[in-house]
Write a structure and sequence with these properties.
15% strand, globular, 15 strands, 2 domains, Aspartate Aminotransferase, domain 1, Aspartate Aminotransferase, domain 2, binds 4'-deoxy-4'-aminopyridoxal-5'-phosphate, four-stranded mixed sheet, alpha/beta
Amino acid sequence: MSQSSRSTSAWQAADTAHFIHPFTDQAELHRNGVQIIEQGEGVWVTDSEGNRLLDGMAGLWCVNAGYGQPSLITAAHEQLKNLAYYNAFFHTAVPASIELAELLAGISPPGMKRVYYANSGSEGNDTVIRLVRHYWNLKGQPQRKVLIARNLGYHGSTVGGASLSGMPWMHAQGDLPIPGVVHIEQPHYALLGGGIGRNEFGLRAAGWLEDKILEVGVDKVAAFVAEPVQGAGGVVVPPETYWPEIQRICRKYDILLVSDEVICGFGRTGNWWGCQTFDYQPDLMTFAKGVTSGYIPLGGVMVGDRVADTVEAGGEFRHGYTYSGHPVACAVGVANVKLLRDEGIVARVREDVGPYLREAMGSLQDHPLVGYTEGVGLMWAIQLVRNRETMELFDDEKHVSVICREHARNNGLIIRAIVSDRMIVAPPLTITRAEIDHLIQVTRQSLDLTLQTVRDRRWM
Ligand code: PMP
């Protein structure tokens, strides 16, 4: 039930007058009016009109534990009462930030025992850039400055994060990327596979990293930065052969391997970290989102021994944020990691709801608009196509996935539309089988309605 203190239209008017939204065409928003989300419980949110929606995107891939978890709320409340803030700069720390560091070390791959705190994924990746370059300076190889990332990778929206991201439309606004960041093609089998087998393609796509290293110059490359599964780029799951080959190449040329676990971390792929699902050992891992299930901003970098030992021996690392290791964020992080661990939520993704969603996604593949579905754990993409035989896509300007997203929303389901007409599903990890059934039923209904729209407009 709505608890709004103002009417929806009053909120919309104030929003229009005062709020510039992230990644939003303001004029379009003002034409449509913002949707006000007021409450959350489990996998459900409620808007100011009293509509209940199944949140098939876990907010923005972050509400891993679902909404309204009492232990997270209590942790924040208790920490606020006890000590709302203290810094970590002057040889001080708060218990919560130490306890979370210890817990994170316990769930991370061997050799990753130390954490550097930030407040978001973007700040985490900016920290990565500074840490990597600082590391090579300390190693006496200051010419190693170049970071290699991937097209359509997403690593954030700060100057550093947006530079690492491989989104040309972001680079176009503000003269990015910064010098010393270059990109290679993504391991997108359906798009770039060119008729070869999936595993062979995985090796070929990894080979693009080696080509780029040789082009830039082996002695100039500092690190390779990538998501285990590209998230905002469309849930692009690499072939099995890809990551082991990437790791081999990084080791061959002594290049740091950075796994951006901002989406994949904290259970999304069925293990604590995506690198465990895809079987590689990074030197650094960026995290955010799921560390607090999005209840409060927190991010950071897990720092492997190789980098941590060098940086810790190298004097002061002149980097940090007022809120590095914020007590309230860390207290929520502690409660969240314990909840995911003690309730077996990560294992449940791997063994129960993950496989169940895989089956359910498979059941959509007979739909005339669906080219294929692709995903792992609880992150999935549905590729909409104009022609299932040839996999021909619709023109981007037709925004067919946006039409589908709107049909879903009108029927009580939040799913996301991404470039090239991919529908994204990434619900809270606490979703039940019955809720997955509902999600799939409304998705199919939305696909049917989209098909009708597309046929009415003679686009197919
Ligand atoms: N890395 C990845 C893989 C992400 O998906 C995101 C956000 N979607 C970020 C970094 C940036 O995180 P934030 O928005 O918290 O700055």
